[in-house]
Design goal:
single chain; about 100 residues; alpha+beta; SH3 type barrels
Length: about 100
């Protein structure tokens, strides 16, 4: 796969891949995957997780961020104005 960075998300993926940092990837389905970027191209991201390798279509990703355990565990991060805000959307079932 080629590593062509064209946008902010690709920049994040490329940085995480080069530095071998863990990322949190949130999917349209509401699922969260935690792992390291193995590779990516313009359509697919290969994510190496403890459960195995996942091929994820980019259009299924709602957001991605670097995993920072110290930041996530800190209660004071909520008062930090520079702290990233993560919003997880869950799909609602449409009932007839």
């Amino acid at each position: 796969m080629q590593h062509v960075a064209v946008g902010p998300r690709d920049w994040l993926l490329n940085t995480a891949r080069k530095e071998r940092r863990r990322v949190q990837v949130y999917l349209v389905s509401g699922a969260r995957l935690l792992g390291k970027i193995k590779s990516f191209d313009r359509l697919v991201v290969l994510l190496n997780t403890p459960g195995g390798m996942h091929a994820i279509y980019k259009h299924a990703i709602t957001s991605a961020q670097l995993d920072d355990p110290g930041h996530l565990a800190s209660k004071s991060s909520q008062s930090d104005p520079k702290a990233p805000i993560v919003v997880v959307r869950k799909r609602r079932l449409i009932r007839d």
